[in-house]
Q: What sequence folds into this?
């Protein structure tokens, strides 16, 4: 058995949220996050929950930014630092690395109904030569809160589609293009009501970096809650770049079967029309079962499946795994995950095994 | 002093009316004119649903009988074509799933030490001849947080020979009962709260 602790597959929550909190009745992201679509900087209520429902131990006092800073009401502060221990173990060599993976600061300033949210952090450049290469702002947007239910925002952020799960490496996130550093410039309108929510996003691509040739298009995502423990949604995405048109369409669900047990799933059909005239369908699927026997300690099972083109079996990627996620005290998250993955285009006969350990400190 | 005497008289009068009502209902039941359900012995569920904004946070509170044994007491009785009775609920039994929220709810807003019980007295619930029906309008008097108010809602009743099942849903406004609107870290609970109760058991 070949075991890889590999950078290629490090899974982190990056800017994403924890939809598993539906077990506590938190069906909408905006209870804990400033962003209507969740992830990123926390609201004061979200900070409080980091002790009350997320962590095993801790005190209310330690939920403050950097433990002791209590910013004024108009300002929220956040940020994330992540490290990962990786091992690459092949028949010919073994390599261990301890890597600083993310270091971001985030702030949200609010005046009346307007908020400006921005991140600034270390870029993914291996050897940055200029300040511009060393620093990056993955998200920066202006938000207008028209009412408790309706919000508009414009700027750079990840558009709403499917489940914004913590593990951004699964096929419904990374493979479909909703990963860290894939944020585009968007204009979004969102409605978040007691039973329904709806996000309509116009994607302008990377207007700051046209050479990246990112897709432009639009997406619609809506969901309904049958009660505070069940949420079902549908998403549609259209993207166009000079090489192809891509459409994604599919349902997703968050279900708190019982309080300790949460099931998440997303299935998306993919239709690709390439410039050469080829028109084909594919599928991406993700499911996770999360069990929290005591507060802050999670055991989970996951599986994902991707087939980019139904006509071609070599476009299949499939993985399944298990892991432990632990929030000992506010500010800390630890993850250990084992995953078996088969990429048919690389090796159609064998699964590769991956293990990784991650430490996350949120400011 | 006079006010205190007057309050005491009102209290005594209400207690007397309740006692007479209970005795009358019990006699009716004994005489075969109706049937009474002892809520203390019934299977009960009490819930409330409050919505917080922004984010449409749904806060559901439930009675936990591990916190207070027999949180609901009182009786319901069917006489001819009405269902009447009084139910007293120990508010300390309420839980919302988050300890800090529970302590805020009980200490700061409901002031459970000062006002430990909520009491609902049914004043009107007309039943069909079958003693079975859904969405039946009812009226009652709710005593909560030291304030008495008339409440209106809908009930579902199902009476068989030996069993009575009764479900009630009504809405209250917190400020009607002098309860401060709960607010915490930017999330504010709506003034209107929905209350549901369900009781089922053997009738006597």
A:
């Amino acid at each position: 058995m070949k075991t890889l602790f590999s950078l290629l597959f490090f899974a982190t929550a990056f800017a994403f949220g924890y939809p598993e909190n539906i077990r506590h009745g938190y069906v909408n992201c905006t209870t804990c996050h400033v962003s209507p679509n969740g992830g990123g900087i926390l609201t004061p209520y979200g900070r409080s929950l980091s002790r009350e429902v997320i962590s095993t131990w801790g005190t209310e006092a330690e939920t403050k930014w950097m433990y002791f800073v209590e910013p004024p009401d108009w300002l929220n502060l956040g940020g994330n630092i992540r490290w990962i221990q990786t091992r690459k173990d092949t028949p010919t060599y073994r390599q261990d690395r301890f890597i600083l993976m993310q270091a971001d600061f985030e702030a949200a300033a609010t005046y009346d109904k307007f908020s400006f949210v921005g991140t600034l952090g270390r870029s993914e450049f291996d050897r940055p030569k200029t300040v511009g290469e060393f620093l990056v702002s993955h998200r920066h947007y202006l938000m207008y809160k028209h009412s408790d239910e309706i919000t508009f925002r414009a700027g750079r952020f990840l558009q709403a589609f499917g489940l914004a799960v913590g593990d951004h490496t699964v096929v419904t996130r990374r493979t479909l293009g909703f990963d860290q550093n894939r944020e585009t410039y968007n204009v979004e309108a969102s409605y978040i009501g007691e039973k329904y929510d709806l996000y309509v996003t116009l994607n302008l691509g990377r207007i700051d970096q046209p050479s990246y040739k990112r897709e432009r298009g639009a997406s619609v995502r809506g969901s309904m809650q049958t009660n505070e423990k069940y949420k079902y949604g549908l998403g549609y995405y259209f993207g166009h770049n000079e090489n192809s048109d891509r459409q994604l369409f599919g349902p997703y669900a968050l279900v708190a079967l019982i309080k300790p047990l949460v099931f998440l799933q997303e299935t998306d059909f993919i239709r690709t029309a390439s410039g050469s005239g080829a028109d084909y369908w594919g599928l991406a699927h993700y499911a996770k079962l999360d069990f929290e026997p005591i507060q802050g300690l999670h055991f989970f099972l996951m599986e994902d499946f991707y087939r980019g083109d139904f006509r071609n079996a070599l476009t299949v990627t499939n993985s399944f795994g298990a892991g432990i996620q632990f929030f000992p005290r506010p500010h800390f998250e630890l993850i250990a995950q084992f995953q078996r993955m088969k990429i048919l285009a690389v090796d159609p006969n064998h699964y590769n095994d991956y293990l990784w350990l991650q430490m996350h400190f949120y400011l | 002093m006079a006010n205190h005497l007057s309050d005491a008289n009102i209290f005594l009068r209400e207690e007397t009316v309740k006692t007479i009502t209970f005795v009358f209902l019990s006699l009716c039941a004994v005489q075969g004119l109706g049937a009474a359900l002892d809520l203390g012995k019934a299977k009960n569920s009490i819930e409330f649903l409050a919505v917080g904004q922004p984010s449409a946070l749904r806060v559901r509170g439930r009675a936990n009988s591990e916190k207070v044994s027999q949180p609901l007491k009182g009786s319901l009785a069917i006489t001819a074509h009405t269902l009447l009775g009084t139910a007293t609920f120990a508010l300390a039994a309420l839980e919302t799933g988050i300890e800090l929220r529970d302590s805020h709810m009980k200490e700061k807003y409901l002031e459970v030490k000062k006002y430990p019980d909520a009491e609902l007295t049914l004043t009107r619930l007309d039943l069909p001849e079958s003693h079975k029906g859904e969405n039946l309008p009812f009226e009652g008097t709710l005593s909560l947080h030291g304030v008495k108010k008339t409440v209106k809602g809908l009930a579902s009743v199902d009476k068989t020979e030996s069993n009575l099942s009764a479900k009630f849903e009504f809405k209250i406004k917190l400020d009607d009962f002098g309860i401060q609107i709960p607010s915490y870290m930017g999330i504010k609970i709506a003034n209107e709260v929905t209350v549901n109760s369900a009781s089922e058991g053997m009738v006597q």
